[in-house]
Amino acid sequence: MTIELTQQNYQKEVIESNLPTVIKFYDSHCDVCKLLTPILERVSKYYEGKANFANCNRLESSEIARKYGVIVASQIVVAYKDKKLGIFPGAMISAGGAHNAAKEESVKQKIDKCLETLVATK
Prior knowledge:
This protein has 5 helices and 5 strands. With 122 residues, the chain is an alpha/beta fold. The protein has one domain (2-121): Glutaredoxin. It has a 5-stranded mixed beta sheet. β2 (21-26), α2 (31-46) and β3 form a beta-alpha-beta unit. The two termini are 26 Å apart.
């Protein structure tokens, strides 16, 4: 399940969570962001119980975006508590003619690389 991340629930959903959070930063007018949504929804099922997934409007929750260094839409941040484990551009995933399975695998690889950072620091 993907939650809508806001300033009001950020503390509870990210900082107080015992799981890392994969955050898709979006703008309501961003076509790439819309293309990423179904890909991330399918990928989130793979991480059930291992990571939380959230969408965050970059403009409406600009404090959260600034915290992670997000300045454009379609950025995906993997965070644990108050630490950024990694960031990658969603445009690279949604672009091109690759099949959805290849796009999903690409997202998993990027998330896994970020999660390895967490394991190494624990």
